[in-house]
Every structure is written in C-alpha cells, then in structure tokens.
Amino acid sequence: MPQNMFPFDIFGFMSGMFVLIFVIAMIFFIIVIIIVYKLLHTNVDNVKKKSVKITNIPNESVIKASKENAKDKLITEEIVSTCKYCGENIDENTSFCPYCGSNLID
C-alpha cells in the first residue's frame, strides 16, 4: 500500500498541492474583482470629468417669455385631487378611493 495517500498525508504532497491550488484561485479571484471594479468605475469617472459649459446667458426677453408660458400653463392645468392615504389621482367628488378603498369624507 502506498504511503502517500491523501487521508494519511499530513502536510505532504497532496497538502502542498491543495495550498498551491488555493493560492492560484485566490490570485484569480482578486484579479477578477479588480477588473470588475475598474469596469464599473470607468463610467462614473467619465461622467465626473464631463462638465456642461453654458456659453450664453439668456437675456431678459427670454426670461419674461418663459415666465409668461409658465403662467399660461398654470392657468390651463386642471386641478387634480389625490387620495390622502395612497396618493393616487382620483375624481374630486368621490367618497371612497378606488385604489385603496379609504373613506375620503371626514
């Protein structure tokens, strides 16, 4: 019977082979982690480096026109009622919310 069998081989050839495989696996794992980290953070770094430059500042007439458009939009929009419990848009005169069933008349 050979004396170098694995169950009886304490710190022998098989144990050394296990340590070698373990070290190689750990190195491979670390390399994969570094590659994934670099791939995930390259996009973030590129976004941080890009900056938006405003070349011209809008003059007063453009600002006044945008304010008038905003006022027109505010006037033409409907008043929408929402449920105070679930936040869904509902009709103004309903007594129960059709989404959550809450009583809205208090």
Name the features:
106 residues; mainly alpha; two-stranded antiparallel ribbon; 2 helices; elongated
Protein model, in words:
This protein has helices spanning 13-49, 60-76, and strands at residues 81-82, 89-90. It is mainly alpha-helical and 106 residues long. It has a two-stranded antiparallel sheet. A hairpin with a 6-residue loop joins strand 1 (81-82) and strand 2 (89-90). The chain starts with 12 loop residues before the first helix and ends in a 16-residue tail after the last strand.
**Order of strands in the sheet with the most strands?**
1-2
Total helices: the number is 2
Percentage of residues in strands:
under 5%
Residue-averaged pLDDT: 73
Biggest sheet details: 2 strands, antiparallel
Question: What ranges have pLDDT less than 50 throughout 5 or more consecutive residues?
Answer: none
Please tell me what the overall shape is: elongated
Q: Helix amount, in percent?
A: 40-55%
SSE series: HHEE
Radius of gyration: 34 Å
Question: In total, how many beta strands?
Answer: 2
In terms of structural class, how would the helical and strand content be classed?
A: mainly alpha
First and last CA, distance: 90 Å
